[in-house]
Amino acid sequence: MSGENPFQPEHFAREDDARDDEFYSIPRLVAHIDDAAIAALSRYYARVLPPGGHVLDLMSSCISHLPDAPALDSVTGLGMNKIELDANKRLGERVVHDLNRDPRLPFSGARFDACLIAVSVQYLTHPIEVFAEIGRVLKPGAPCIVSFSNRCFWTKAVAIWRALDDEGHMKLVDLYFRATDLFEEPLCDDLSPSPGRTDPLFAVTARRRAVS
Questions:
Q1: Which residues lie across from 74 on neighbouring strands?
Q2: Is residue 96 part of a domain?
Q3: Distance of CA 118 to the CA centre of its chain
Q4: pTM for the full model?
Q5: 127-137 and 166-180 helices cross at what angle (nearest 10)?
Q6: Which of 5, 26, 124, 152 matches a 20 to 30 Å C-alpha distance to 169?
Q7: Integer Cα distance of 35 and 46 in angstroms
Q8: What share of the chain is helix, strand, coil (3-state, %, to 5)?
Q9: Which DSSP state fits 48?
């Protein structure tokens, strides 16, 4: 199914379809997964992120879950709430932007060495367009790491996400990557630190295909 878009508009309907900038106007200075899951995600980032890289933290908030090593040259955060972004000390550049209103990323092509979407992918109403934009702003070979748990703002999650289980969520994100035809084979990982006792955690990672 690589390069094909198998989705219909109803797949991305939401129970609360009010403007997202209104919903996210109230800052939420909290972690959206527990400490064990945060530590697991940080360890995964440490294995995958390139040292000295320029990283895009997409749909960012007050926490980026980044490890202390490898050292990164820069982290750019794009999110919905300025107060949350300002509270995130790992960010060197902060951009307030609503991807559901405009999926285009306000960055030049091949700018970043990695992209992160942490516990937020379930809210995208135009995911194929956003993932295509991620492919545009990533350098060849750069990874995009999409992580998620089973927690979310239910009324803002899209219908297809609400209908699926954890395995289904991994397959869905895999399809998002494949539909752009811009990424290498996605890898799905269960990073759950202690199943049944802590928040589950999953990651789907794909690298930008080399430009032929």
A1: 54
A2: yes
A3: 5
A4: 0.93
A5: 60
A6: 26
A7: 16
A8: 30, 20, 50
A9: H
User: What's the number of domains the chain is made of?
Assistant: 1
**Does 2 fall in a domain?**
no
Classify 33 as helix, strand or coil: coil
Written in H, E and C, the secondary structure of 110-178 is: CCECEEEEECCHHHCCCHHHHHHHHHHHECCCCEEEEEECCCCCHHHCCHHHHCCCHHHHHHHHHHHHH
**At 78, phi and psi to the nearest 5?**
-120, 120
Structure tokens at 137: 């702003």
Backbone angles phi, psi at 53, to 5 degrees: -80, 160
Cα angle 124-172-148, degrees, rounded to a multiple of 5: 65
Which CATH number characterizes residue 57's domain? 3.40.50.150
